[in-house]
Design a protein that fits this description.
5 helices; alpha/beta; 5 strands; 164 residues; 17% strand
């Protein structure tokens, strides 16, 4: 193990520690924000399971191997929605994005990643606020946005990814 590898490992460990501390903050320790601003963790939450009409083109990432198989190695473009159950803007953006992906007739897929369940993926993809949405093609991030978008903006984002 060379020095560059040790430096990279130390950086990843530091990022993980910062994210874990951020996730442990309570509402009293965080600044107030607009309901439409990207979320930062607020408090412990309960997990919920939901399904959508766009289930064929949308899936929940189960673990790192699942992400590798279904997102990174996917021949189709994939939109990755990093979200959290406690995030108000995520609850607005998620269904809106699922609806727009479903309209693309299978040309693009949508992966949903809960940052509380998959902190390692959030760190790896430098997610510091939710919702964060990545556009991935051939395993590479080709576009990204943070926060909420309207349907016209989402359509432009998807068309750019698909190349239409």
């Amino acid at each position: 193990m060379g020095i560059p590898s040790l430096g990279r490992l130390a950086l990843q460990m530091a990022q993980r520690l910062v994210l874990q501390r951020l996730l442990s903050l309570t509402p009293r320790t965080l600044p107030l924000q607009s309901p439409l601003a990207p979320c930062v963790p607020l408090a412990p939450h309960s997990r919920a399971f939901s399904t959508s009409a766009a289930c064929r083109s949308t899936f929940n990432v189960q673990d790192g191997n699942d992400f590798q198989d279904r997102v990174v190695n996917n021949p189709k473009p994939v939109v990755v929605d990093f979200h959290a159950q406690w995030c108000g803007p995520c609850k607005i953006l998620g269904p809106r994005l699922e609806k727009m992906v479903a309209k693309q007739d299978g040309k693009v897929l949508m992966a949903k990643v809960d940052i509380d369940d998959h902190t390692d993926l959030a760190i790896e993809y430098e997610v510091s606020a939710v919702p964060t949405v990545l556009a991935m093609k051939n395993g590479d991030v080709v576009d990204k946005f943070v926060g909420i978008k309207d349907e016209d903006q989402l359509e432009a984002f998807l068309k750019k990814l698909i190349g239409a």
